[in-house]
What we know:
The structure is a homodimer of 329-residue chains. In chain A, 35% of the residues lie in helices and 23% in strands. The first copy, chain A, is an alpha+beta fold and 329 residues long. A six-stranded mixed β-sheet of chain A has the order 1-2-3-6-4-5. Chain A has a six-stranded mixed β-sheet with strand order 8-10-7-11-9-12, sandwiched between helices. In chain A, strand 4 (83-95), helix 3 (100-117) and strand 5 (120-129) form a beta-alpha-beta unit. Chain A is globular, with a radius of gyration of 19 Å.
Amino acid sequence: MPEEQDEEQDEVYIIRTITEQAPGLMTGLRVGPGDDAAVLDDGTVVTVDAMVEGVHWDERLSPADVGWKLAAVNASDVAACGARPTWAVLTASLPAPLDRAWVRDFAEGLGAGCRRFGLSLIGGDTTGSTGPRALSLTAAGALVGPPLLRTGARPGDDLWVSGTLGDADAGLRGVGGPSGETLLGVLRRPDPPVRLGPGLAEAGLAHAAMDLSDGLARDLPRLCAASKLGARIDPALLPASDALRAAVDPLPHQAGGGEDYQLLFAAPAANRAAILALGEALGVRLTRVGALGAAGGPVEAVLVGRGWPKPWDHFEADVDSGEAGPANR
Amino acid sequence: MPEEQDEEQDEVYIIRTITEQAPGLMTGLRVGPGDDAAVLDDGTVVTVDAMVEGVHWDERLSPADVGWKLAAVNASDVAACGARPTWAVLTASLPAPLDRAWVRDFAEGLGAGCRRFGLSLIGGDTTGSTGPRALSLTAAGALVGPPLLRTGARPGDDLWVSGTLGDADAGLRGVGGPSGETLLGVLRRPDPPVRLGPGLAEAGLAHAAMDLSDGLARDLPRLCAASKLGARIDPALLPASDALRAAVDPLPHQAGGGEDYQLLFAAPAANRAAILALGEALGVRLTRVGALGAAGGPVEAVLVGRGWPKPWDHFEADVDSGEAGPANR
């Protein structure tokens, strides 16, 4: 945890420093830093996410998994703002001599991911490196309505999540048994519901949204802070896959772990039926898990009747078997 | 040279593999891979360029120089397509523990470069790394007329270059004397004429353009191949700075070395006066250095009366003093 906190502080420092050193530099923006993606005045949504070997993935992901995931995480950010993913450009820094089998496998997964999530891969840059493989994808999207932001939640809104939570985290921590490969599969090939965000935005059904990349225990407080509202979640309502329930107590993974890339959103109670109908039309499971608090109340995310599970670092030691996982690097 | 060739072959392999593995993936494009930037159907121009420590820069560039240069090289690609630079997003992978003084200096240079070249820095992602500092900037632009491509040159067109050539390469190779710091200054802080490409495009003055990032000996054959025409350059006409002429025979650096980020463009003879007037209005020196050949002739770039200087690798040993420079990594 200390290293994860350091990394968060480092990121905050870098962003603040660049913003301070460059006063007046961020122009042409409807929405600047702090949301899932930037929203330009012309309705283009832009995000960028990097993946570095040893930091964001280890040998449990094949090169094709890495390619897929790079597309997934970026498309997820775009769609969480209520935009339809459109195009992407790639940077790949790869050590010499080039491992051509790695490139072929990576390209297959990246292509499959881009097709799945609606991204046209329009260009890129490749360089050598003396270090680990480092990848970065910039992805854009087109708004289909007002953007869905973290700041838009209103007092009394329902809180919803898509899909099921916790599989990717359980896979990462080596939760075993017959479910092990199924859970790891979600870590390897996350499948964010990229039509949901634009669908909610187009129909004007939701007030706020963000994708769950770091887990509910980390991400929900960010939505609360941005919207200046508290939130109460009923842990019994959090959706879990059969595989996860069969293997382990799901809550620590549902709330404490990330990488599911499901959507968390806030919407008025009047829209419940329309939201469920949209989920059905898109084939996306939607679950109401709690509600936002009152204006002027405490800005705090509460798990009713329980404390929040401690959020884990990506590469912390395996909590279930006690085996040491890859070090936090 | 062999390593540089390997790297070029690696890049070609990666692009081909991704394109092949992802058939039908590049959609919504007016101009795809192979030009300075991609051009989307909606007139947005997008490019990405990465810089890795030890590959693209060494200790002769300060962190602020690196930030400036990252903005410059990307804005140069956008402007070479005839587009006005608009926005950029950054990826920075930096080793732990974070060197905060490095971040501050880098941010200062990046901010200055973005302002200089008209880029709004709208977002980014920062990650840790176990390797060298790795930076990537995705930059976009807005077309102001038909895009200026490498493919558009016509038989008999004049060939023009902006600014002066060779300073950055001479600085890189440690050409010394009183000019040394001046020449290194161009390597550290390239100043691409980013209003020239859009100016030419808006007025419809040029048929083709590209920026000179790898040097005339490498870049001109690319324009020839794309336009399927030969070219003849008069070496005596190539513009050189006083600092370069005072220090050394300029031709090897003008033609064999890159990193000047000046514009090479092809235009009909009828536009000469208008082109010179545009250069004057923008404060950009423009020099006519040769011409394109006839249709159906040999597709070859000829330096009249001379062979092309051998293009150097970025980090080849210092050719003037015989001192070993940083190794090609």
